[in-house]
Amino acid sequence: MFSKTILDFGRKPNVIRDLSAYAGRRKAEIGAEHVFDFSIGSPNVPPPPEVHEAMLDLLTHADPVEIHSYTAAPGLLSLRKTIAQSINRRFGDHVDESGIYVTAGASGAIAMALKGLTNPGDEVIIFTPHYMEYLIYTEAYGAKPVIVKTLPDSFQIDLPAFEAALTEKTRVVILNSPNNPSGVIYTKESVKALTDAMKAAEKRFGHAIYLLSDEPYRELAYDGVEVPYLMNYYDDTLVCYSYSKTLSIPGERMGYLAICRRCADYADVVDVCAGAARALGHICASNLYQRVIERCVDVVADVNFYKENRDILVKGLEDLGYTCIHPDGAFYLFLKSPLPDSMVFCEKAKAYELMVVPGHDFGVPEYLRVSYCVARETIVNALPAFAKLAKDCGL
Ligand code: PLP
């Protein structure tokens, strides 16, 4: 017999990928310019020139055997040192290379941390709206996701709801800021309240509760809004970082897990995460790309392009009567569904060739997600279609 849980993961539809495939079919049928695909969150800004320059230089001048060989499982020591120095320079003195593990994107880091830190029956707190895959990684290892609602309208932490969810079985809390799908950045006040509650719960229950900071969008914050660095608030923090969006290289699968060196049972946490990576079949991240990252560790793609897209989209939709959560970061807009069920609304939108994602799988069915990592003209040309849709829904 197969594991029913794992079989179900394989069979569960992926709403975003299905919508994106549908958009592809519609483009072939009626022409790409008539289809407005806001489904998927894949960067459309090219990687900064430094990335290709580094690749070309490595391919031209480095030893071809060396740059394609296996590396140590946690990554090249020189890269891990470079990442640790970059974190400490930017955010405070938190990590050394022993706590840096180079992974296949943030996904690789989250999966290995959850596998390493949880035992079957442990609880993992996840806030709405949430990235869908958290549930898969949590359940795959026999832990239990505990979904906690955030405050309506602001989507900041609802402290009483969070405190009520903390139990003796809580092992991990996941926070994603800037948030996919809402674009919300948790404020310093939210982070302080959350981490104070976690410290109190650690004391009460007598064991560590780890905070997993999932931050693929850290660099995508607009108008100078600060994204608090969680290790400054809480020692039992592990950061899951990604270069997918920062450097526009999602297909290269590069990221890291950073473990705060002041965390409880540090040596064991380092080893259990390494063990989890091994159990998950991780051998090492791409050697060539580790070298590219080492040269581009503080480089960022053109974030301003996304900010301008956001401004045009938010203004355009608000002028039409839509209500949205003002996104301070990432490249997603969370729109209140004009119909009570966003699934019905998103189906209706397809009649206008608008592909937007219902909020059900993010845990908020009254909202929908619009990914604005698209060409500028897609936004501009989609606004008349959004206008017709608004009328159709009585806005
Ligand atoms: N976490 C969140 C919130 C995301 O939105 C994504 C990707 O979209 C990931 C993790 C995974 O990113 P990566 O490509 O780094 O695995």
From TrEMBL:
Molecular function via GO: pyridoxal phosphate binding; transaminase activity
Residues in Aminotransferase class I/classII large domain copies: 34-383
UniProt cofactor(s): pyridoxal 5'-phosphate
Keywords from the named record: Aminotransferase, Transferase
EC number(s) per entry: 2.6.1.-
SUPFAM superfamilies in the record: PLP-dependent transferases
A Pfam family of this chain: Aminotran_1_2
InterPro entries with a match to the protein in the record: Aminotransferase_I/II_large, NHTrfase_class1_PyrdxlP-BS, PyrdxlP-dep_Trfase, PyrdxlP-dep_Trfase_major
Entry similarity comment: Belongs to the class-I pyridoxal-phosphate-dependent aminotransferase family.
Protein name as annotated: Aminotransferase
Organism in which the protein naturally occurs: Candidatus Avoscillospira stercoripullorum
